[in-house]
Amino acid sequence: MRNLNIRKVAVVGCGFVGSASAFAIMQSGLFTEMVLIDANKTKAEGEALDISHGLPFAKPMKIYAGDYDDIKDASLIIVTAGAGQKPGETRLDLVKKNIAVFKSIIPEISKRNKDAILLVVANPVDILTYVSAKLSGYPENRVFGTGTVLDTARLKYLIGEHLQVDPRTVHAFIVGEHGDSEIVAWSSANVSGVPLHDFCEMRGHFNHKEAMKELADGVKNSAYEIIEKKNATYYGIAMSVKRICEAIVRDEKTILPVSCVHHGNYGIDNVALSIPVIVGKDGIETSVPIKLNEQETVDLKKSAETLKNVLANVFEESEEQK
């Protein structure tokens, strides 16, 4: 990355998700410099001060509030800015509001820094990842969203609870939209190499169809349940952001289901959604062709069409308003 400080990160947006992500990043010790940017600079200053006061218990780091000029040498730019999801509101309800926000943010970023990795966190993340790729002019492998990384973590957690086994030994993915049309890739799920159904029976669970529906619904409804109880979700996504940062900074080449623009994978073209990919210091290296059965493939294509229709409607309305 030309003229970039690989140990510098920028967080754009200091709401619940942005500030929680900044806190998780500070604790990780991955970076030596972090700039926080927000439309309300006083809020960014307060968050920077609050997080900085924990530095005596962490690794040395410079944390400060800044503006877009401060991102010119950042190797990673994390965009969490946007309206939050309200009770009763789907992620896709946020589309129009947050596309407008991104139309003001992304050009400011790309004017100052064309070589960083752009990580989109704001929802609806798949739509905003696609919009960011188009607005920024960055190579598509360097623009991706948190996608279904958190959904996949929720799935692993729930399967672990169901089977009373360490969720870190569960290998399963949520693919597609980060939202209501997401799909559990059950056909490739396993626990330490043991096919999931076999492991379930080993643990005394035989009602696979009912359990699969309950677990999938549990993942899909997790955010809605949390929002209903506490008005926002931010700790889980902050840990997801930290995990993606680790993969990039350490060049781990780890496999994560981040959201990115696809051209041909599983018959999907010109839309951003999540399938597992290899993530390292240069962003996305390649997609990973996990096994999907016929129905899962059909459902993944439907998820892609759902997102495409949203984009088409939004851009059609924009043209009509000109």
Structure description:
The chain is an alpha/beta fold. It folds into 2 domains: 141 residues, 3-Layer(aba) Sandwich (Rossmann fold), CATH 3.40.50; 164 residues, L-2-Hydroxyisocaproate Dehydrogenase, Chain A, domain 2 (Alpha-Beta Complex). The protein is 44% helix and 20% strand. It is built from 9 helices and 16 strands. The strands form 5 sheets. It has a 6-stranded parallel beta sheet, with helices on both faces. A hairpin with a 2-residue loop joins β10 and β11. The longest helix has 28 residues. It is globular and about 55 Å long.
SSE arrangement:
Blueprint: E1 5-12, H1 16-28, E2 33-37, H2 41-52, E3 62-65, E4 74-79, H3 95-112, E5 117-120, H4 125-136, E6 143-145, H5 149-163, E7 170-171, E8 174-175, E9 183-184, E10 190-191, E11 194-195, H6 196-202, H7 208-230, H8 235-249, E12 254-256, E13 259-263, E14 269-274, E15 277-280, E16 283-287, H9 294-321
Parallel strand pairs: 1-2, 1-4, 2-3, 4-5, 5-6
Antiparallel strand pairs: 7-10, 8-9, 10-11, 12-15, 13-14, 15-16
Average pLDDT: 93
Strand numbers in spatial order across the main sheet = 3-2-1-4-5-6
Number of strands: 16
Poorly predicted ranges (pLDDT <50, ≥5 residues)?
none
Distance between the termini: 38 Å
CATH architecture of the largest domain: Alpha-Beta Complex
User: Compute the gyration radius: what is it?
Assistant: 19 Å
**What is the domain total for the residues?**
2
Shape: globular
| SS content category | alpha/beta
The ordered H/E elements are EHEHEEHEHEHEEEEEHHHEEEEEH
CATH homologous superfamily caption of the largest domain: Lactate dehydrogenase/glycoside hydrolase, family 4, C-terminal
CATH first level of the largest domain: Alpha Beta
Largest sheet, strands/sense/barrel: 6 strands, parallel
